[in-house]
What we know:
The structure holds 2 protein chains of 2 kinds.
Chain A: H1 19-29, E1 34-39, E2 42-48, E3 66-70, E4 73-79, H2 81-102, H3 108-121, E5 133-141, E6 145-151, E7 157-159, E8 162-165, H4 169-179, H5 186-200, E9 211-219, E10 222-227, H6 230-257
Antiparallel strand pairs in A: 1-2, 1-8, 2-9, 3-4, 4-5, 5-6, 6-7, 9-10
Chain B: E1 4-8, E2 12-18, E3 21-23, E4 26-29, E5 35-39, E6 42-48, H1 52-71, H2 77-92, E7 100-108, E8 113-119, E9 125-127, E10 130-133, H3 136-147, H4 154-171, E11 178-185, E12 188-191, E13 195-196
Antiparallel strand pairs in B: 1-2, 1-10, 2-11, 3-4, 5-6, 6-7, 7-8, 8-9, 11-12, 11-13
Helix pairs in contact in B: 3-4
Amino acid sequence: MARRYDSRTTIFSPEGRLYQVEYAMEAIAHAGTCLGILAKDGIILAAEKKNTNVLLDDENFFSDKIYKLYDDMVCSVAGITSDANVLTNELRLIAQRYFLQYGEPMPCEQLVSWLCNIKQAYTQYGGKRPFGVSILYAGWDKHYGFQLYQSDPSGNYGGWKATCIGNYSNAAISLLKQDYKEEISLQEAKALVVKILSKTLDTTKLSPEKLEIASLYREKNNTKMSILKHEEVKRLIEDQERVEKEEEAQKKREAEARPST
Amino acid sequence: MECILGIRFNDFILLAADTIDSRSIVVMKHDVDKFFPLSKNLLMAVCGESGDTTQFSEYIAKNVHLYKMKNDYELSPRASANFTRRMLADSLRSRERYNVNLLMAGYDEVEKKAELYYMDYLASMMELPYCAHGYGSYFVLGCLDAYYKPDMSVANGYELLKRCIAEISKRFSINLPTFSVKLIDKDGIHDQEPIHARQLVI
């Protein structure tokens, strides 16, 4: 039945590229930003909410962009939301099947790897298009502790200390390269996330409605995930604005102190 | 008519299994090894239908090994036991079930404890301080109830095992002349001196 579909979606170009995969990544480059930072005592995932229409009924669901996969892992997506729903559903199934078979939670990398094998299949056979989603995974397991992974439509994945997907991700990643320090704490990571997003997003001013921040941490041998409350996000944004104002004032003072030529 | 026993102490486990393979009234082989190592710190003792025992044990052992090859770390004893139980449960409601009973002993290097799992052909599983399969279990469980202590040394544990096997030799009507013994601890699987019934004071 592959005859009925355009079988050209999964073949190489003469230059050795997979165009459909690249086009999928292009779709993601226009989607809402997701940023992830690995701290020594947890992981922060931040997502830019693109659907901030006041008419949206957003009181009764958990989150727009952040999905809980199982007790020890959450993920954030950038790209086509309906594709993301299919993949997160599959991730949850995979994790529970592992738990059914082994009686213990699935290690993070195995889950990412399993899904990426599925994503890869869509780039090689079937005549179907790849998934237009990149995913940031934040999880904990007993083998390697806290881990942050990123996967893309090609089915490639990597482990990261800090990374960004979606709109303005390149700018965010270059800022992260400068500002990320090893052994950063969870609290410092929250501030760093707000700093980076305020500098890279195109909105003139960040607000708690546009930003969703989740943190993953361990408490008493359990993994916990919490979405930061409105007030805390507001406070982080205000702290960041204050720091920026001080930096500006400092620059001004330095410019005035220099003798004019 | 087979018998396998396991006793879990604080930092090690002793597993013992008889060495007889019989078909009806005839003893086919006197020196059978009923143990299957799954990894450095994980050992399985299996009894039940001839053929099923080897097939099933090798299947589990190779799957445990495959996991290690794929993932660079090993399955914990608890995960291996759960996996084995899942295989037994799936086979139970399939065309033909695996007719095997087993004891799985392992030392978990992450949690730093010894674990002993009892599983039977109906896919029931329990982590126990001591357990046994076969008719011999009727004789040794009472013995272990009375004399088991979790903090025994290896020497005392071995004596306790001898006591159990003496009980079997005295009261079980089928002759099980030798039991091979293995010790599992954080350093791996170690062979112990086999226990011969005729050398025991009964």
